[in-house]
Amino acid sequence: METAELIAKVRKIEIKTRGLSNNIFAGQYHTAFKGRGMAFSEVREYQYGDDARDIDWNVTARMNKPYSKVYEEERELTVMLLVDVSNSLNFGSDTCMKREMLTEIAATLAFAAIQNNDKVGLLFFSDRIEKFIPPQKGRRHILYLIRELLDFQPESNATDISKPLVFLTDAVKKRCTAFLLSDFLDSGDFSNALTIANRKHDVVALRVYDRRMEELPDVGLVLMQDLESGQTMYVDSSSKAVRKAHDTWFRESSERLNDILTRSRVDSVSVRTDQDYVKALMSLFAKRN
Predict the structure, then answer these.
(1) Among 60-69, 123-132, 170-179, 250-259, which is the least confidently predicted range?
(2) Tell me, what DSSP letter sits at residue 21?
(3) Top-confidence residue, 286 or 166
(4) For the chain, where are the E strands, in sequence order?
(5) Which among 241, 243, 250, 248 has a CA at the least distance from the CA of 219?
(6) How far apart are CA 226 and CA 5, in angstroms?
(7) Rounded to two decimals, what is the model's pTM?
(8) Is residue 172 within 8 Å of residue 78, measured between CB atoms?
(9) What span, in angstroms and rounded, lies between the C-alpha atoms of 283 and 264?
(10) According to the per-residue pLDDT averaged within each range, which of 8-22, 212-226, 271-285 is highest?
(11) Which residues sit opposite 289 in a β-bridge?
């Protein structure tokens, strides 16, 4: 992508997604995602009912009467965006491709995070770790992430969702909120990696899909290509049996994914490319409040 074109697209994404974060998500994001725990705030004179384990013995010794430590919720988060860049994202039958919607959602979450003074990091994955950008704060960093989201070219076309989850567990030491953004077209078993990652971190799954995955239209004989393997085949979409098989595949794969997410205790939301992802994010935030 040419530099001028890239700058223009970054600016367009910034204006749209920052506006959404400012006007819609300000309070919802803040309450939906909790901090890492309790941080020390101050000491005060011991009161009846205080936990004896919170007594500050150094201050107590100096003041000759008991003082307790007071804690408050630590609001600052580390947010990791785990973004699928496999070739299946480069498909869209309506107003945008899956990758374009994924980019907007990631940018919206990034702006919501920096409004909360959170650090944001980015991990691109296919069937390997394509690129890792460590978490930082600030608008300049967010614009850099958006530029990468718009212009990054992966080395591989395939998908292995277990790879970013294992990397997250091993490489990110402090507990973080990790948004896993993908179309989840992965026939492998990533349930164990997801369960382990969610024990250490707070993993949230965001699935983007196209309506043609949900329903195959009757348009006759069609040449189709698997964007990840490159294989092509003719499909008779006028056949009721073919359309029914396609519908069954989508329903069963969706049920399998939902089962994995439920067993791993991972919050999730799905959004179709011709639908409003703002409503999907709002429902996710509301579910966590």
Answers:
(1) 60-69
(2) I
(3) 166
(4) 37-45, 67-74, 78-84, 119-125, 129-136, 177-182, 202-209, 221-225, 232-236, 267-272
(5) 243
(6) 29
(7) 0.78
(8) yes
(9) 20
(10) 271-285
(11) none
One-letter amino acid for residue 1 of the chain: M
Cα separation, 149 vs 122, whole angstroms: 9
**Amino acid identity of 266?**
V
> Which of 169, 178, 69, 60 lies closest to 121, judged by CA?
178
For residue 242, the one-letter residue type is: V
The answer to whether residues 161 and 257 touch, using CB atoms and an 8 Å cutoff, is: no
Reported as half-sphere exposure (CB side, CA atoms, 13 A), residue 14 has a value of 16
Closest to 160 in 3D by CA, of 195, 188, 198: 188
Q: Which two tokens stand for residue 97?
A: 């491709």
Angle at 101 between CA 235 and CA 22, to 5 degrees: 165
Q: What is the number of residues in the chain? A: 289
Q: At what angle do helices 98-115 and 277-288 cross, to 10 degrees?
A: 50
Residue 179: name the closest of 36, 77, 26 by CA: 77
Percentage helix, strand, coil for the chain under 3-state DSSP, each rounded to 5: 45, 25, 30
Rounded to 5 degrees, φ, ψ at 89 are: -75, -20
The sheet with strand 129-136 has its strands ordered as 129-136, 119-125, 78-84, 177-182, 202-209, 267-272
Instruction: Return the residue matching tokens 């979450």.
Output: 109
